[in-house]
Each structure stands twice: as structure tokens, then as C-alpha cells.
Write a structure and sequence with these properties.
Layout (H helix, E strand, L loop, with lengths): L11 E2 L5 E11 L8 E16 L2 E8 L12 H12 L2 E2 L2 E8 L9 H20 L7 H12 L3 H8 L2 E8 L13 E8 L6 E6 L6 H7 L6 H19 L5 H4 L6 H4 L4 H12 L4 E3 L6 E5 L5 H9 L3 E5 L6 E2 L1
Parallel strand pairs: 1-5, 4-6
Antiparallel strand pairs: 2-3, 2-13, 3-6, 3-7, 7-8, 9-11, 9-12, 10-11
Helix pairs in contact: 1-2, 2-3, 2-4, 3-4
């Protein structure tokens, strides 16, 4: 595991009235062939505010998830804030947390990773005001956020911004990486996305459970399909950075999208429709959102058809990583 500051046993109490606000982007994972490794940050943001208080924990949520998520210490943002403060060796007497969410939940746009990253970055903002020598680095933020997720693709994209290549290393090399039965270290590096590339997401009204769609996946794949995805994932790095005309080929996949198709039929149909029109489209994460990475407009007729079928169409920038505002 990445070496984190270990101050928990000598935690310093933060003064009341410190405030920090983090803005954290959505993300899309896999990008076709890069299962659990490739990700990209998208310009759709949640805003997390944290204030130290004399006692207690108060959480308010506006927008996505309001009335659905817990408002106690089991809330993911709260867990992330406490984890970040603990890693820096500080503790609050109480906290007030505000969440203003625009990232839709359970749609394949990294809302849980954004919550974890937003909480950690907001915690870092508090630490910076009181113990600046204990501020967590980006590498440490990637590690902590990925521990919440169990894989680093979404979390690292929201921390670093741009596109990312991420990877997982088990402490015990004999451990299977999927599920990581031993302690894991998580790593990522940022790619600078070609300036002509735009992201378009099509978001259905239906939701999808990542854990359920993971359960659909086979435990073994053929050597031929593994080779196919290795070649496409490598090509994706080139396409994203210098050769966007290769994106259609670079976003092909044989390891997870077809296998998940029965669970997300509308998503699967729209990926096929867009790819048939020459638009590089993939399932965004576990779905049901569709991600298109393109250098040209999606035909207006397809946009109208998507709206008629209940899909919200958003053209988004490729975002930078989470930041304090």
C-alpha cells in the first residue's frame, strides 16, 4: 500500500470554524477495452463543503441523491472526510458537510468515486489551513479513494483529471487482482487528451448496479480475446493523446460489454447505433450511460431519437481533477 502519513495515534484536534469546499468531476471508466484501468474525467461536477464544528455531524444533500442517501456517518462523503483527516493525523470535534450534486447516481458516471474524492479533497483543504505539512499528495488521494472503490479507474480520473491509465498491485503477488484478497496499492498516471476530442454522454432514466453487472462477467476469458483487448487498450492511449481518428477502433472491447448486454439492453443498442454511424461509443463504466468520445458532432437525427427514447444527452468537456474552490 502507498505509504500514508500515520498520525492517527497522535491526532491533533482541529479548531472550530475551518471551512473548505471541493469541486469534483464525474468520470467514465473502461473506455471500451481498458476494463478497470482506463478512465476519463468529465465536466459534470459535484461540490462538497466541509466546516469544522464544536460537536456532532450534520449532512445536507441537494440535487442527485437527495432523500435517498444516508445523512449519518455511513454517508460516503463523510467516511471519506474522516478517512482523509485521519490519514493526516487530525480530527474534528464535529463536522458540517454540504453536498450539491449534479452527477447522477448509479448511471456509470463515477458518482461514488466522486463522493470519495470530493470528501478527501475537502478534508485536505481543512488540513492545509491547520497543518500544511500533512497535506495528502495526489498519489495518496488516488490510493485512499481507490480503497473505497476497490479499483482505481474512476477515482484516479476524478483526482488527476484528463484521461488516466491506472493499475493495481497486490501486496501478495500470488493474490488475484480482481477483489484483491491481499492489501492493494493503486496507481495512476494522467494522459493529456487531444484538444479536438469531446465527450458526449447519453444518460437513461434507469439505473444500474455495478456489483450486479460485475457478477455477470465470466471468471475466465480466451487468450484470443485477451490479446484483442490488450491491443485496443494500447491503441486507446495513442488515440486519446495524438491520433483521435483511431478512436473507433481503439474503443472496441471483447471482455465486458457484450457480456453485460442482457442487463443493459437500451445502452447496448445505443452503443451499436452510434458506432454504426462512425461515432466511437462505449458503455460508460458499468452503465447504463453511454459515452461517446468524438471529434465531430453526433448526427442531429440521433440526438432527437435519443431524447425521444428518454436519454438525456450531454456534451461535456474533458475535465481537470478535483480542486478546492
Amino acid at each position: 500500500m502507498t505509504d500514508l502519513m500515520s498520525h492517527e495515534e497522535m491526532a491533533t484536534v482541529l479548531p472550530d470554524g475551518l471551512t473548505a469546499t471541493a469541486e469534483v468531476p464525474a468520470s467514465s471508466a473502461n473506455l471500451g477495452p481498458g476494463f478497470d484501468s482506463l478512465g476519463i474525467a468529465l465536466g459534470l461536477n459535484d461540490t462538497i463543503g466541509v466546516t469544522t464544528a464544536p460537536a456532532g455531524l450534520e449532512i445536507s444533500v441537494e440535487g442527485a441523491g437527495a432523500g435517498e442517501v444516508p445523512l449519518d456517518d455511513s454517508h460516503l462523503v463523510a467516511k471519506a472526510v474522516f478517512r482523509g483527516l485521519g490519514a493526516a493525523g487530525v480530527t474534528p470535534k464535529g463536522l458540517r458537510i454540504t453536498c450539491k450534486n449534479t452527477i447522477p447516481h448509479s448511471r456509470g458516471l463515477g458518482s461514488s468515486a466522486s463522493a470519495a474524492v470530493g470528501g478527501l479533497v475537502a478534508a485536505n483543504g481543512l488540513v492545509a489551513q491547520f497543518a500544511p505539512d500533512r497535506v495528502l499528495t495526489d498519489d495518496q488521494l488516488v490510493q485512499l479513494a481507490s480503497e473505497f472503490e476497490g479499483h482505481p479507474d474512476n477515482a484516479s480520473a476524478s483526482v488527476l483529471g484528463g484521461a488516466v491509465v491506472s493499475w493495481t498491485q497486490a501486496a501478495d503477488d500470488s493474490s488475484p487482482i480482481a477483489g484483491c484478497t491481499a492489501e492493494c496499492s493503486y496507481f495512476a498516471t494522467r494522459l493529456e487528451v487531444h484538444p479536438d476530442i469531446r465527450a458526449v454522454v447519453l444518460v437513461p432514466e434507469t439505473r444500474s448496479s455495478t456489483s450486479q453487472t460485475r457478477g455477470i462477467l465470466p471468471t475466465h476469458v480466451t487468450h484470443r480475446d485477451a490479446v484483442f483487448n490488450v491491443s485496443r487498450a494500447a491503441l486507446a492511449v495513442v488515440a486519446l493523446t495524438t491520433r483521435p481518428e483511431l478512436l473507433l477502433a481503439a474503443t472496441e472491447d471483447r471482455l465486458h460489454q457484450a457480456q453485460r448486454a442482457p442487463a443493459i439492453p437500451l445502452t447496448t443498442r445505443w452503443v451499436s447505433l452510434l458506432r454504426g454511424a462512425g461515432i466511437p461509443a462505449t458503455v460508460s463504466g458499468a452503465g447504463p450511460a453511454v459515452l461517446a468520445l468524438t471529434v465531430r458532432d453526433i448526427p442531429a437525427a440521433l440526438v432527437r431519437r435519443a431524447g425521444a427514447e428518454g436519454l438525456a444527452v450531454h456534451e461535456l468537456t474533458i475535465a481537470d481533477g478535483a480542486r478546492l474552490i
